# Entry
Amino acid sequence: MTILGIETSCDETAIAVLDINSPEDITVRANIVSSQIKLHAEFGGVVPNLAAREHVKNINHVFETALKTAGIIDFATEVDLIAVTHGPGLGPALLVGIAFAKTIAMIHKKPLIGVDHMRGHVYSNWLPDKNYELRITNYEKTFPILNLIVSGGHTELVLMNDYESFKLIGETMDDAVGEAFDKVARLLGLGYPGGPQISARAEIWKQEERSKKKGIEFPRPMIHSKDYNFSFSGLKTAVLYKIRDLKKEGVEITGDIINEIAHAFQEAATEVLIQKTIQAAREHGVSSILLSGGVSANTLLRNNLRTATEKAGLIFSCPPLAYTGDNAAMIALAGYFAYKETGSADPDASVRASWQSVDMQPNLGFRD
# Structure
């Protein structure tokens, strides 16, 4: 099948074209992403109505660029299916993509299917990259899978027994880990998005002289709880209190202090994610651990989770960096699996394409 994917859940306008013969035979013919990060940076986060306005301005150009890149000349005869993100995400932004998808589906008389954004992140582990060693290649021995999905709006542990079989076993009780990174970056006076800023500052800290270090440590929230849920709001508050206490002691919050706080925060957050994931993997007897979502680009999380997974004798996979953020290639692939499972297309089938299919409520926080 040749599938056009459309993604507008947050601040990326993305359209991709994929040729898919099977999960083992995928060709990404085009994957175009127009980011709005610079536009929203001055606000310290994504403004929904502003994001929607930019999607309206950009989507037709991104569409035409994707078709040109993919070499699509006659849409009506060369494209078999259109897949569009149906949620979760920012309501106004989602509506732009859905309306655009319905329009081109009607014009060209093509089947259209609505898919879940979080499933797209999971499937990003199947997207091809010949030079990338951490993507899935051993398909027969991969299942059952435990997915750690980490982004600006979601932190979830999801069991996967087959391509379209999902069960949510753990999630954040408050802030998502990506949201916590953004808020801590704001406390430290760093830019948006916070993840890359915190990671860069933490790396600098490792190169500093020992005499400059304050021995800053932060708690590991819920690390010993008996469930697989997460909480990051308290960790963010601990950073706030540490900055306040240092100032009371007359300590100037210099670049060195910022770097050490960033390092201590990142270590605490990633340790909780990794320990909970490994514990859940052991309890549920999975064969593989997959990492996905925007925060999966974090080098410390990737490396440490890979080490822990391989030490446990399990397969580890995470997407190439090009597919960690929001993109339409993962949406096209999610559309393929949903269409293959049901044999029909339904642009309003958000229930089928969410965790609700296993009696779990879908995340409707619209924060990813």
